[in-house]
Amino acid sequence: MTYNSTINYLLEFLLKDKAYVKYVGYTNDPAAWSHYKVVIVPSSFLKDHAEARCSMPQLPLKELEGMPILFGEPVVKQVNGTWVIYADLVASALFLLSRYEEKLNPERDVHNRFPVKASLAYKAGFLQRPLVDEYGAYLRKCLAQCGVELPQNALKMTITLTHDVDVPFEHRTLRSFLGGIRRGKVKTALKNACSSLDKNSVYTFPWLLEQDNRLPEAQKIYFLRYPIQACAYDKPYLSYRMRDMKQLVTLLKQNGVQLGLHGSYQSGADGSLIVEEKRQLEKNIGTPLTQHRYHFLRTCIPDNFISLQEAGILHDYTVGYADAVGFRLGTCHPVRFLSPVTLQVENVQLHPLTMMDVTLSDYRQLSYRQAWETIVQLIEQVKKHHGELVLLWHNTSVADATSYHRQLYNDIITHLTLD
């Protein structure tokens, strides 16, 4: 199998401009090196993959100018005017962008998710560095040193504010009301059942929309669910024919946000369910859907993303760790899905998730100050590489009076408005 199209895509992704790909060669043939300004010498990664015997990079990782490299040697030589890089930055980028290690490592958590502590990025200490973007910056620097005129990067960080609508309101159905009574939430259940929807304890969408609208240039996406198979993790099941759901959908549409499909917990294990979930949700809300995120950030690579593509989903916002913030794909830029099985470039575009609210508080158990310092560091990384900052905040997290998430989200938006 040849991987020419994949290599070409990776070089375009690293260089951020296809016009400069012609200056960079990926070959171990010295006779061809003079045709390029910069050459990356391939390691055995692609050959090993084709022969089904590829192994994990070995720790500790070698470094090239402070950058951990996964394959090759941290050696750069000038050969007859050509910069020759023996660190295989292409294979290193492919390994990270394709989540190749998940193909090699069977370790999973209780939700069948690949855990952060099993990842190379965690073990090698570069999870909070968009390493693939660093590779790209290094290649562009090499081209500039070879006399290639690169335009000044006028791009700025883009911002995508996302919200998963898991529990839009509480105690508005008889089942939910009785459940609240059984759990001892008598006053809350009575208030939620008898008051208008706007006064519901978790219906914080007007506040979230107000915060989001402080960043007019940001993309705003609210992900809605439509599970079609019974599963405890997909509760509550809510009909879009009920008045409260109609009111919510109307509110979101009136505020001009984008609506996406929040794939069910079950679809995270069986991607074939996505087609019907998407069809049913589109039918009920009257809006075509091209954006998606899996519930619980639960994915089975590569089958889930192939299923999304087959369903007509163009953009996915799932790929991040539930148990840590950082750059799971090694980048803060949207990237087309690279299958770790075929190493081919697919059409669905993955938007790396930078941070999720409950990751900070529940999984990492960070204090407000620790969470804020972590967030600022991540924002600075995304800004440095002119990437896409993707935030995930739940309506329920900002409703919890014992949580810092309402204040934290407000402070993040304020910080971003000042940039």
Quick summary:
The chain is an alpha/beta fold.
Topology:
Elements: H1 4-15, E1 24-26, E2 38-40, H2 45-50, E3 62-64, E4 67-69, E5 72-79, E6 82-87, H3 89-97, H4 101-104, H5 120-124, H6 131-145, E7 158-165, H7 174-182, H8 186-194, H9 205-212, E8 219-224, H10 243-254, E9 258-263, H11 274-285, E10 291-294, H12 303-310, E11 315-316, E12 335-338, E13 345-350, E14 355-356, H13 357-363, H14 368-384, E15 388-392, H15 405-418
Which key features would you list for this structure?
single chain, 419 residues, alpha/beta, 9-stranded mixed beta sheet, 4-stranded mixed beta sheet, 15 helices, elongated
Query: Mind telling me the C-alpha Rg?
Result: 23 Å
Percentage of residues in strands? 15-25%
Mean pLDDT: 95
Instruction: List the secondary-structure elements in sequence, H or E.
Output: HEEHEEEEHHHHEHHHEHEHEHEEEEHHEH
The largest beta-sheet arranges its strands as: 12-13-11-10-9-8-7-15-14
Between the first and last Cα atoms, what is the distance in angstroms? 47 Å
Tell the overall outline.
elongated
